[in-house]
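Memo to structure team: turn this sequence into structure tokens by end of day. - J.P.
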Amino acid sequence: MDFVAGCIGGAAGVLVGHPFDTVKVRLQVQSVDKPLYRGTYHCFQSIIRQETVFGLYKGIGSPMMGLTFINAIVFGVQGNTMRFLGQDTPMNQFLAGAAAGAIQCVICCPMELAKTRMQMQGTGEKKSSRKLYKNSLDCLARIYNREGLRGVNRGMVTTLIRETPGFGVYFLAYDVMTRSLGCEPDDRYMIPKLLFAGGMAGIASWLSTYPVDVIKSRLQADGVGGVNQYSGIADCVRQSIRREGYMVFTRGLTSTLLRAFPVNATTFATVTLILMYARGVEEGPKDCEQAQPSHHTQIKQQAQPSSL
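Reply from structure team:
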């Protein structure tokens, strides 16, 4: 039931957060010489005006499809790692989260590649005159036919660098927050506390690895127009800093942080309500009161979106 709840909660989080993710990607990869958007609000406004509201949901199929596999991997790895480590300590929460984050990159990287390519397709067009990709699966199939496995796993190293510490920070922050806030069996604010802890942990996680995410997005979007601009990670970092300065690593950060809290809040609310309904209202608060790693882990694993 925990797995089902996590999947449904994650799906709810994707629906709420995907428009913010689209804005983030557009801002991260837009040309510095001919920028289409002046900022987060202008990007939202332009996409809706030029591509309708559905433009904000471009590429949503990929995270929806990858959600089940990612949740399964994260849920299994984090739980088994915590059992292997034995003690529920903040450091062990970080290590277990980092292990889960590293292993789920196998699914996360191709999924985000397809998502990024779909989000960039038809930029500024209400109805794309020539669609390169029909959907996320077609996108991955075309990339594989053209570039092989290496093409499908473009951005794997940067994804690994982002996800490993990112998941670790998330689980660590959530563990510290839930312990600090406390949770009594008859606490009427139990769910708001969990939502607040999850939202703040998501923000902390993004802040810790955001510069890497900028480079990952640029590498995965590179070649969309048929021309590859970067030869690798170091070249992407070098060119980005030379042309745009160090502030390039904050591009799209506003929309990311705006997305982080509601995504985690939505995911936590959905997971918590489903688990409480399935187990009975009495069992839910008991789990929270004891603050056992199994309860925190089950919720935390579902709350982290593929892009945190």
